[in-house]
Amino acid sequence: MDICTRLGKNVRRLREEKGWSQEDYADRAGIHRTYVSDIERGRRNPTVTVVEKLAVPFDVRPGELLD
Fold first, then answer.
1. CA distance 46 to 43
2. Which part of the chain is the HTH cro/C1-type domain (predicted)?
3. I need a surface site. Which of 17, 22, 26, 33 has the fewest CB within 10 A?
4. Distance CA 41, CA 43 (A)
């Protein structure tokens, strides 16, 4: 599995564990909802800055999203 797919699966799993919609999560992360959708489907290759934004609402280290 490539890193973008792994990131997307981890983001989706954590988001669903919190019970957040993509829109709720996007608001918390400060990014657009369609970008979250693309990330979850592995169709985006986000920058390290975006990976950090994705991690903050989950209170995890950015690297944990890539494991």
1. 9
2. 11-65
3. 17
4. 5
- Domains contained in the chain, CATH given: 3-61 (1.10.260.40)
Q: Which two tokens stand for residue 8?
A: 């997307």
Render pLDDT for 22-56 as a digit per residue (tens, 0 to 9): 999 999 999 999 999 999 999 999 999 999 999 99
pTM for the model stands at 0.94
Q: Quick check: 2 and 42 in contact, CB under 8 A?
A: yes
Handedness of CA 44, 45, 47, 50 (dihedral sign): positive
Please enumerate, as own/partner, the contacts of 31-35 that have beta carbons within 8 Å and a separation of 24 or more: none
Q: Are 25 and 15 in contact (CB under 8 A)?
A: yes
